[in-house]
Amino acid sequence: MDIHNKPIQDRIEWLINHASTHSEKYSKPGSWLARTRYLSEHPTSIAVLKCMDGRINIPIATNTPQGIIQPFRNLGGIFDLGWPHLGEVLASYVQNVVSDGRRVMTLITYHFSKGDPQRGCAGFNYDTEAARSHTYQIKRQVEEVFGDDHATVYPIVCGFETDDDALILHGSTGEQLNMADLKLSDKDTLLPRLEALFPDMSAQMRQDLLPLVAGNLDHVEEARQMQRELDIVHREWMICIGRGFDFLHTPNLALIIGPYSPNLADPIDKAAGIIQSNMEAGRIPDDGFLLLASVPFHDVGVDRARAEVKSKFLSNFAAERIRVSHPELAKKMKVKTAVLNWHSRHLEMLSVG
């Protein structure tokens, strides 16, 4: 079913059902055991810093089970570890992983389209070189905070080409590995390629990176066999603000804004502009779009109550910003506020607007 062309109320109903189905599947014993087995075989924790662009879905692009990759999203993949909230969240994430005796691999991504520069990253005004340069700035910050020996936290600059959904790994040697340049018959050569690309990476980390690149090789081949004209352009009909949106494992549905930057107005303005362009170009119906705020919680009581207050703040802030920056678009805005139970991935709706 092509959900993009449905009336807005049908799309919202589909979303609620989709979130519920995801939680049910995520919470099943078999799914829990599968994740546990995967992490026992591949203990390195994987975080991805990426753009809010709905076309960038790393678990889908790497055929990785849901719940394995930890996403951090913001406009253009623009991050600064000096941002107070981002620094706290990332440091807490790393400390929790390391306390379990595991390492962290951080994919710092930029994206572009090989077919049309205007399908690239709007956050950098379609300047791929500027986007790539920024990822190296983030990499240097990660090394400054967590150590440049890469023994525990290993940052990798990673391009994402949205026409083929192909990863481009930038190695510590200055070499690159573009998955779009390989064939399925090259799969047996991936491990030695990773060894050459990241000679200072631990053997376990390389073994844990291998399923992602192998999965991406398979996915690129599948993507090339599909009709992807509408998938490779912006077609989002949702703006999501907050965290806990991994249930949106269908590409090109939502522009996801993490609550990390001290200036949330800019990504909200840009996201609203993309939604408006999607409507004007006829890529989605112009009868409405959804603004969804979500904040995860781990424990009932104070933690959940704080998540509810924070989600309401984000929802109100984003809605008011859209009313100011895009008043005509705001008339078509539907608002939902939610909290997410992190253990079950159950999305609990608080209000409807």
Automatic annotation (TrEMBL):
Q: Where is the Carboxysome Shell Carbonic Anhydrase catalytic domain?
A: 93-170
Matches recorded under InterPro entries: CsoSCA_cat
Q: Which domain of life is it from?
A: Bacteria
Protein name, UniProt field? Carboxysome shell carbonic anhydrase
- This protein's species is Candidatus Thiodiazotropha endolucinida
